[in-house]
Amino acid sequence: MDVELSVRDEPRMIASILAGDREQYHELIRPYERSVYKMALSFMKNESDAEDVAQEAFLKAFRKLADFRGQAKFSTWLISITLNEARARLRRQAIVRMESLDESPEEGGHISPALLRDWREVPSEALERQEIRQMLQDAIANLSPLYREVLLLRDVEEFSIEETATALAITTGTVKVRLHRARMMMQKELAPKLKNAGPRRRWFQWS
Amino acid sequence: MVIECKHVWDYISGYLDDSLPAETRELVQRHLEHCQICSAILDSTRNIMVLTADDQVFELPLGFSERLHARLSEEMKNGLAVPSEDAG
After folding, report:
1. What is the 3-state secondary structure (H, E, C) of chain A?
2. Any idea which architecture A124-200 has in CATH?
3. pTM for this one?
4. Is some CB atom of chain B closer than 8 A to the CB atom of A102?
5. Is the pLDDT of residue A4 over 70?
6. CB < 8 Å to B69, chain A
7. Which residues 19-78 of A have a C-beta within 8 angstroms of B?
8. Are A164 and A178 in contact (CB under 8 A)?
9. Which of A42, A115, A119 comes nearest B47 by C-beta?
């Protein structure tokens, strides 16, 4: 996309939106549509609620744009708004069930990974299969919120450790601890499944 | 100094982020060189991280962008406040 190729001067875009050029907002958010939606989907677990949350987040960001002071990157700030919007929506829907958002699962102790004797690389092409995509989405959705948030920001949105800490208002140390546990939970859940879901097409060549 | 597998597991995420202190990294590295199981855990974790980050995992629904921008335009037309006017 052009937005990624051309140099985007976001502070300037934001300044001109604040000065009244509202149309610029469309351009400002274009590169982040997917990030915001992914974030929303991981919380809402269904596409239509996720789309609502994403739209609300973009509207809210517009309304609050004057509060954005450039202390973080615009994308970091936008994702934080999305996160808060999704959390608020979940509370309203009271579908939080047993997992309270404020609950702090014990952060000590080991997560034992799934033990494997060897690992054969699962290539990105495997994601062409709906069942594999679903497997990953489910694994993320099933993490408890504290771990899911950190994993999403760091490994899905590819924020740095510092940006993740800023977005969640936690320390970098806490990010590292939660990230480690989240990644181990993902490995424990997914490694055995992915191993079994291996590239069937090549079976015959190997046997 | 030699470390056991279960200690290595505590460092996998830090190892992948390259955020371990040099000595720890060295210990983990040496363990990985001869431990097939820990290497497989590391490789699978890295592989899962790569897959997780792939854009294909979360596809935007068809028409998402169009609906978003249409809604924004609509709200702006209906007086969604220009942020600077909102300040008061």
Report:
1. CHHHHCCCCHHHHHHHHHCCCCCHHHHHHHHHHHHHHHHHHHHHCCHHHHHHHHHHHHHHHHHCHHHCCCCCCHHHHHHHHHHHHHHHHHHHHCCCCCCCCCCCCCCCCCCCCCCCCCCCCCCHHHHHCHHHHHHHHHHHHCCCHHHHHHHHHHHHCCCCHHHHHHHHCCCHHHHHHHHHHHHHHHHHHHHHHHHHCCCHHHHHHHC
2. Orthogonal Bundle (1.10)
3. 0.79
4. no
5. no
6. 26
7. 19-20, 22, 25-26, 30, 33-34, 37-38, 41-42, 47, 51, 54-55, 58-59, 62-66
8. no
9. A119
Domain ranges across chain A: 7-93, 124-200
% of chain A with per-residue pLDDT over 70:
85
Q: What residue type is assigned to position B57 of the chain? A: V
Assigned token pair, A54: 């994403």
Neighbours of B4 (CB within 10 A): 10
- Domain boundaries defined on chain B: 5-79
B55-77 pLDDT, tens digit each: 888 888 999 999 999 999 999 88
* Top-tier CATH class for A7-93: mainly alpha
ipTM of the complex, rounded to two decimals: 0.83
